[in-house]
Design goal:
23% of the residues lie in helices and 44% in strands. By secondary structure, it is an alpha+beta fold. The protein has a single domain, classed as Ribosomal protein S16 (S16 Ribosomal Protein, Chain: A, 2-Layer Sandwich), CATH 3.30.1320. A 5-stranded mixed sheet has the order 4-3-2-1-5. Strand 1 and strand 2 form a beta hairpin. The longest helix has 9 residues.
Length: 79
């Protein structure tokens, strides 16, 4: 099953997250198939690169992690 979830990057105390598509059994940091966007918790910046591609993945069975789903709802991105 494919999951759309956060992958942490950045240096210590300066976290930066990528929104990635990955198999649910693999590590989000190294086992992802595609980067779909990013989230910066300090500036509260949230961006999806291609919303149509995310819609396509969701229609074909991919699921959001709870945190990504909450970020999508708070930024008014509907699928």
């Amino acid at each position: 099953m494919l999951k759309i979830r956060l992958s942490r990057s950045g240096k210590r105390n300066m976290a930066f997250f990528r929104i990635v598509l990955t198999e649910h059994t693999k590590a989000a940091k190294h086992g992802y198939k595609e980067v779909l966007g990013f989230y910066n918790p300090f500036s509260k910046e949230f961006k999806i690169k291609d919303v149509e591609k995310v819609k396509w993945y969701v229609s074909n069975g991919a699921q959001f992690s709870p945190r990504v789903k909450k970020l999508m709802e708070t930024n008014n991105i509907t699928l």
